[in-house]
Amino acid sequence: MIKVGVIGSGSMGTGIAQVAATAGHEVHLYDNNPSALDRSEAFINKIMSRLVEKGRLQPEEAEAIKGRIHYQNNLFACSDASLIIEAIVENLDVKKQIFETLEDAVSEDTILATNTSSLSIAAIAAACKKPERVIGIHFFNPAALMKLVEIVPAVQTSEETQEKATQIIESWGKTTVLAKDTPGFIVNRVARPFYGEALRILEEGLADVPTIDWALTHIGGFKMGPFTLMDYIGNDINYTVTETVFEAFYYDQRYRPSFTQKRMMEAGFLGKKSGRGFYDYSEGAQNPAPNEDAEKGNEIFTRILYMLINEAADAAYLNIASPGDIDLAMTKGVNYPKGLLQWADEIGIQRCVNGMDRLYTEYLEDRYRCSPLLRKLARTGKGFFK
Ligand SMILES: NC(=O)c1ccc[n+]([C@@H]2O[C@H](COP(=O)([O-])OP(=O)(O)OC[C@H]3O[C@@H](n4cnc5c(N)ncnc54)[C@H](O)[C@@H]3O)[C@@H](O)[C@H]2O)c1
């Protein structure tokens, strides 16, 4: 067992501390805001009681897990940890500052990891004297429940750091995938069209919100439709991620955010948390029913699916991750019903190419350009896994 430091006791830090303590490690959980530490402790206590009530943990196990989490208001309490995972505010300067301050106090081979969703790991590592010890370890929310963790080495990261970090996270029962240090890593990049194309279909007036959601859930087999999911994530958060990815990709039109969602955010229609988003969540509210026209539903679903497959194919083409890891990331990280590249193989690569080309011919927008890898596979009669 090792000592683990977690910096930031917000929603992610608390979840990561819970996972590490459940795996048997002593955890120092630091936050510079005392009330965040109190909230974190109260949350862990509540979760542990619930797990005991449900019979998923013995009372003594729950006590032991709680006893292994040490809530700290001094950053240097983490300095004897072998792995430190930072999960503070998403701000490059603040994250750099924390690692700069910590590095002098930790041992030679301590791994410094960041849970950032959108910042460059290379830029964070550059703040350190030993950047080879810095790596991205990207958990999903809620960290205790979501199986997937993206391991993101920076250009400076040593192989030893990558291997050690992967081995530790897998020993916590997580599934790891290896991603290149590029905007959105795997999941937050490949998932963009799920929201973006649904918004585009809405803006074009091809279908309304409940119909698009119905098409994706009832025909596509997704657990949640895109609008339900945007409302659940929060239109503010989801819009900001899209905007960050768009800017980080030098304004590639494929990732262009939607005015519709921006206006929702500006109006305070954030989704479930504000009581109103694309749907009305107030007591007794009646939301419109979908138009369950199979032909239209199929058209909506396949358009979004082709866009998702195209994005996944392009991530494979640019070596952001292996096809196997891309599929694993989307099924374990965002619960897609099937890996997108596996799906492409099943549908037939040529059909995916035709689907993209039809969209491109219709709109003549760069947004609908077909990935060169899809074209190449179609030409050679190969698939991603066959
Ligand atoms: N929320 C998500 O869905 C999600 C998913 C994956 C990754 N992330 C990433 O995880 C990180 C944390 O996100 P979160 O949602 O837990 O945020 P949060 O706002 O819930 O928690 C952040 C915590 O960091 C603390 N903090 C801020 N500055 C600090 C400092 N200088 N020193 C010590 N503590 C400080 C705050 O007091 C707060 O408790 C971000 O980098 C985010 O991009 C978030």
Key terms:
386 residues, alpha/beta, Rossmann fold, N-(1-d-carboxylethyl)-l-norvaline Dehydrogenase, domain 2, 2 domains, eight-stranded mixed beta sheet, 17 helices, 51% helix, globular, binds nicotinamide-adenine-dinucleotide
Structure description:
- There is one protein chain.
- The chain has 17 helices and 8 strands.
- The model has no long low-confidence stretch (mean pLDDT 96).
- The chain has helices spanning 11-22, 34-53, 59-68, 92-103, 121-125, 159-171, 187-190, 192-203, 209-219, 226-233, 235-248, 259-267, 294-317, 323-333, 340-347, 349-363, 372-380, and strands at residues 3-7, 26-30, 69-72, 83-86, 111-114, 134-139, 148-153, 175-178.
- The chain is of the alpha/beta class and 386 residues long.
- Strand 6 and strand 7 form a beta hairpin.
- The two termini are 41 Å apart.
- The longest helix is centred in the last third of the chain and has 24 residues, at 294-317.
- 51% of the residues lie in helices and 10% in strands.
- It has an 8-stranded mixed sheet with strand order 3-2-1-4-5-6-7-8, sandwiched between helices.
- The protein folds into 2 domains: 3-178, Rossmann fold; 186-386, N-(1-d-carboxylethyl)-l-norvaline Dehydrogenase, domain 2 (Orthogonal Bundle).
- Nicotinamide-adenine-dinucleotide (NAD) binds at residues 7-13, 31-33, 36, 87-90, 94, 98, 115-117, 139-141.
